[in-house]
Design brief:
heterodimer, A: mainly alpha, 7 helices, about 0% strand, B: mainly alpha, 2 domains, 17 helices, 6 strands, globular
C-alpha cells in the first residue's frame, strides 16, 4: 500500500516563487483594467471635450484658422489620436495577458521591456496632468474654467497607481524569471504547473514514451 | 464525506467494533442523518429548529450576510462538519479578526474531538452516530473552516489532482466549473465548485465549497494552496485520511462501549481492521463517485445481515405519533437532544476561547434558563438525569 506521490516543497524560495506568480496574475489583470481605462479616458476626452481637442489643434502653427472649420481635419485628428491610443491599449493588453500567462506557468519575456516603456508613458501622463492642474491653479482670469478640467486629478491618481502596479509587475516577473533560470538545470522536480502543462500537451499530441 | 462513508462505512465500523446489526444500523443512521437534519426538516416534524445539524442549499441561498445569520451558519457547520482543531492556535502578524477565523479551521485529533466523543458516552446510538459523523468529517474536511470566510477557505488556480499510484502517478490541473447540475468528470478532471466571490462573508466561501466535492471523494489526492497557508502548498491524501478515520472510528466506538476507556486522540485501532485492510483500501482508492455498493457489500459480509437503504423518514412516524414529552424518548427525540448537546458544547467552547463568531453562549448552571428556548429541553433533561 506504499504510494509514491509528489512531495510538498514549502521552502522559503518556493513560497516566494509562488507569491511572485500569484502577483503576476493579479497585476496582469490590473493591466487589463488599465487598458480599459485608457480607452474610456480617450473616448471621454474626444467626445466630451471636443473644444479642448480643437484648442490643441489651434496651438499647431501650421494649421490656419480657416482650416479648423474643415470637418475632415477633425476626423484626421481623431484617427491619429485613436491610432496612438490603440498602440498604448494594445501594449497594456499584451503586457497584462503575458503576465497572467507567465503566472500560470507559461514562458514569456517580451512583456518585461514593454512594461518599462509603459512606465515611461505613465510618468509622462502623470506629469502632464500635474502641470495642467498647477497651471490651472496659477492662472488669474479663467482659472476656474481651467480648474474645471476635472479629469486631471483623476488621471494623476490612476497613472500613479499604474506606475506602482507596473513596478510590482516587473519585480514579480524578474523573481519568476530568476527562479526558473536558477532551477533550469537542477535535479529538483520541475514546477508542477510546467510539468502538468507538458503532460497535457503530450497527451493531446498522442506522443508516448515508447 | 458522502453517504457511502457516513452510512455504509460507519455500519462496517460499528460491526468491527463489536456492535450488533441493529445497533450498527442505528449508529449508521444517526451518522448519515446529520447530513439531513435541516431546519426545513425539523419544521416539518415540529421539532426544535435549533437542533439543525445541516443547512440545505435553498436555506443557504436565503442566508443574509448579517451577524446573527453568520453565527447560525457557524454554529451548525463548525459543530457538526468542520470541528475546529485548535481554538487557541497562534499565528504571527495577524489581527484578532483574522485569528478568530483561523482558529476555526478543522483539523483531526483536536481537543474538541475528545469532548465530542465523551459527550456521546451513555447517550445511545444517536449520539454515537453524530460523534462518528463529526470524527469522519474532521479527516475529510481538514484545512477548511465551518464559517463563510474568503481569507481562510478560498482556493485558486493552483490546484492539481494526483492520479495513479507509485511510479505511474502523475499530476494534472483540476478544471473547475460552477454549474451544480453537471456531474464531476473523473476521467478528464473536471469538477464543480462554488463561484469565486470577493466578499469575505459570502456563503460561497463556506467550508470546502471552493474545492468542490474533492474532499468527499475517498480516492482523491490533490495538491493545492489554501488561502490561509500563505503560499504554502498542501497535499491532501484522501485514501490515507479515510483509512485513519475508519480506524479511529473503530477505536472510538469501542471506547464508547466500555465504561473505563476514555477516548484519546491520535489513536487508531489498525489491529482490528487488519483482516479487511486490503478490501477497505481497494474501496477507498477506486475512482468512483459513489462507493455505497462496495461498502454495503463489505458490511453485509461482516454482519451476515442485509443493510437497509438509508431512509430519512424511517423514524418520522414514531416521532409524530408520540406526543409531548414522550417525543424525547423516540429515536428522533434522542437524536435532537444529542444534536442540541453537541451544538451547545462546541458553541460554548468557541465562545469561551474569546471568539464571537459562533455568537454568545449561556451557561445555564450559572445564569439560569435564558437565551434560545429550544435548549430548555436539553437543560431539563440534564436536570432529570442528575
Amino acid at each position: 500500500m506504499e504510494v509514491t506521490i509528489g512531495m510538498t516543497d514549502n521552502s522559503k524560495e518556493q513560497v516566494r516563487y509562488r507569491r511572485a506568480q500569484n502577483l503576476l496574475i493579479i497585476v496582469g489583470k490590473g493591466m487589463l483594467m488599465l487598458a480599459l481605462w485608457n480607452g474610456i479616458k480617450t473616448a471621454g476626452i474626444l467626445i466630451l471635450r471636443k473644444n479642448q481637442a480643437m484648442a490643441t489643434l489651434k496651438s499647431i502653427p501650421e494649421i490656419k484658422e480657416a482650416d479648423l472649420s474643415d470637418p475632415m481635419l477633425y476626423k484626421i485628428f481623431i484617427a491619429i489620436v485613436v491610432a496612438y491610443m490603440a498602440v498604448i491599449i494594445g501594449a497594456r493588453l499584451f503586457a497584462g495577458i503575458c503576465a497572467i500567462r507567465t503566472g500560470m506557468g507559461k514562458r514569456h519575456l517580451l512583456y518585461i521591456p514593454l512594461t518599462f516603456t509603459l512606465i515611461t508613458y505613465s510618468m509622462s501622463e502623470f506629469w502632464d496632468a500635474l502641470t495642467y492642474m498647477v497651471d490651472g491653479l496659477d492662472s488669474s482670469a479663467g482659472a476656474v474654467e481651467q480648474f474645471t478640467y476635472t479629469p486631471a486629478p483623476v488621471i494623476m491618481v490612476i497613472e500613479f497607481t499604474s506606475m506602482i502596479m507596473m513596478i510590482e509587475l516587473l519585480v514579480a516577473a524578474i523573481t519568476v524569471l530568476w527562479y526558473r533560470v536558477k532551477n533550469r538545470n537542477s535535479n529538483k522536480p520541475k514546477n508542477p504547473q510546467v510539468e502538468a502543462r507538458d503532460m497535457e500537451l503530450t497527451q493531446e499530441s498522442g506522443i508516448t514514451g515508447e | 464525506m458522502n453517504a457511502d462513508f457516513h452510512y455504509y462505512a460507519t455500519y462496517c465500523v460499528a460491526i468491527i467494533a463489536g456492535y450488533s446489526h441493529e445497533e450498527s444500523q442505528d449508529i449508521a443512521y444517526g451518522s448519515q442523518f446529520t447530513d439531513c437534519c435541516s431546519r426545513t426538516y425539523l419544521e416539518k416534524i415540529g421539532g426544535p429548529v435549533s437542533a439543525a445539524t445541516t443547512q440545505l442549499s435553498l436555506e443557504m441561498m436565503e442566508a443574509r450576510g448579517d451577524i446573527p445569520t453568520l453565527n447560525d451558519i457557524t454554529r451548525i457547520w463548525a459543530s457538526f462538519h468542520f470541528l475546529p482543531g485548535d481554538l487557541y492556535a497562534k499565528r504571527k502578524w495577524c489581527t484578532k479578526r483574522y485569528l478568530n477565523r483561523y482558529r476555526l479551521i478543522c483539523k483531526p485529533n483536536g481537543k474538541l474531538l475528545t469532548d465530542t466523543v465523551e459527550l456521546a458516552r451513555g447517550k445511545g446510538p444517536q449520539a454515537a452516530g453524530i460523534a462518528m459523523h463529526i470524527m469522519a468529517d474532521t479527516w475529510a474536511h481538514q484545512n477548511f473552516a465551518g464559517i463563510p470566510s474568503l481569507v481562510v477557505n478560498n482556493t485558486n488556480y493552483y490546484f492539481y489532482e494526483i492520479v495513479g499510484e507509485g511510479e505511474e502517478a502523475f499530476e494534472r490541473p483540476v478544471r473547475f466549473n460552477h454549474n451544480p447540475a453537471t456531474k464531476d468528470d473523473l476521467e478528464k478532471g473536471n469538477y464543480t465548485n462554488t463561484v469565486f466571490q470577493g466578499i469575505e462573508r459570502s456563503v460561497m466561501n463556506l467550508g470546502h465549497g471552493r474545492c468542490g466535492h474533492l474532499p468527499d471523494y475517498s480516492f482523491a489526492r490533490y495538491r493545492y494552496m489554501p488561502a490561509w497557508a500563505n503560499y504554502k502548498e498542501i497535499i491532501k491524501d484522501n485514501p490515507s485520511d479515510y483509512l485513519h478515520a475508519f480506524a479511529q472510528m473503530v477505536y472510538a466506538l469501542k471506547c464508547l462501549r466500555s465504561e473505563n476507556d476514555r477516548f484519546e486522540t491520535d489513536t487508531y485501532d489498525m489491529e482490528a481492521i487488519e483482516p479487511w485492510k486490503d478490501r477497505i483500501w481497494e474501496i477507498l482508492t477506486r475512482r468512483q463517485l459513489d462507493a455505497s455498493k462496495d461498502w454495503k457489500d463489505l458490511g453485509e459480509e461482516l454482519s451476515g445481515c442485509k443493510i437497509e437503504a438509508f431512509d430519512r423518514d424511517k423514524y418520522y412516524k414514531e416521532y409524530m405519533d408520540a406526543g409531548g414529552d414522550d417525543q424525547d424518548d423516540t429515536y428522533l427525540g434522542k437524536y435532537i437532544l444529542a444534536a442540541l448537546a453537541q451544538k451547545s458544547m462546541v458553541t460554548n467552547r468557541i465562545f469561551s476561547s474569546g471568539n464571537l463568531l459562533a455568537g454568545f453562549s449561556i451557561d445555564y448552571e450559572k445564569v439560569g434558563l435564558k437565551g434560545i428556548r429550544d435548549y430548555y429541553r436539553l437543560a431539563r433533561k440534564r436536570g432529570e438525569g442528575r
